[in-house]
Amino acid sequence: MNDLYLREPDSKSKNDETIIKNSLKTDFPHRERTPYAVIKKNMLKNIIKIFILTDGSSDFGYIIFQPLKKSRVVYVHYLAVFREQRDKGYGSSLLRLFTAMFPENTVLLEVEDETEIKPAGERNNREKRISFYLNNGFNTVPGVKLNMYGVKMKFMSNRDFKTQDYGKFAKKVYYDLTGSYLATLPIRASYSALS
Questions:
Q1: Cα–Cα distance for residue pair 66/50, rounded to 1 Å
Q2: Contact 170/66 with Cβ under 8 angstroms?
Q3: Strand 106-112 to 73-81 pairing
Q4: Per-residue confidence of the chain (195 residues) as pLDDT tens digits?
Q5: What's 99's DSSP letter?
Q6: Are 24 and 78 spatial neighbours (Cβ–Cβ below 8 Å)?
Q7: Which value, to the nearest 10 degrees, does the dihedral of the CA atoms of residues 132, 104, 171, 183 take?
Q8: In angstroms, what CA-CA distances link 189 with 38, 185, 192?
Q9: Residue 157: enclosing H or E segment and its boundaries?
Q10: Secondary structure of 46-63 in the HEC alphabet?
Q11: What is the residue-wise DSSP string for 137-150?
């Protein structure tokens, strides 16, 4: 592997945008995917950011994230390695480089709950995703189970994160994105924190 680094998308070219938009469509189910127009609008407002993993000549994947204002928390919306680049260690490199950029911050993300799926193939994929994050220094936040628009999710963090802080976190993420606390209702209604 050549030296890898993270770069921002090229704002003068539509190529990066097209590749990420297409990857989102193929890698994330429709009901788990924020419309790209919303992502782009929030990028222009400097709320959401994207980094692309590259070696300067080839791109390998990307991360879409939201540094929370007035907070030491970074929320990962999406992380993906391009299909043809998978199983080569690029996901771990992407996550390592990303967390190194925020050494004082807690990085939070959601991952599909592997116990809530029947088909063995999809359950195996979910278990692999969770294992990937566990192997890269993340842990499941105990007591937080999410039901986001009908999809059961687990909440993961690279640092200790108190279960009771989840409600405040969810409000902040969606308020920053939409300017309204109403956006948290479909999530908050299904949120359960068990101490």
A1: 9
A2: no
A3: parallel
A4: 569 999 999 888 889 999 999 999 998 888 778 888 888 988 999 999 999 999 999 999 999 999 988 788 899 999 999 999 998 999 999 999 999 999 999 999 988 877 766 666 676 777 888 899 999 999 988 877 777 667 778 888 999 887 777 777 777 777 777 665 544 444 443 444 443
A5: H
A6: yes
A7: -50
A8: 23, 6, 8
A9: strand 151-157
A10: CCCEEEEEECCCCEEEEE
A11: T-EEEEEEEEEETT
Alpha carbon of 186 to those of 89, 94, 150, 183: distances in Å?
35, 31, 9, 7
Residue 6 DSSP code: E
Q: Which CATH superfamily is domain 5-193 in?
A: Gcn5-related N-acetyltransferase (GNAT) (3.40.630.30)
Residue 159: Cβ within 10 Å count: 15
Q: Which residue ranges make up each domain of the chain?
A: 5-193
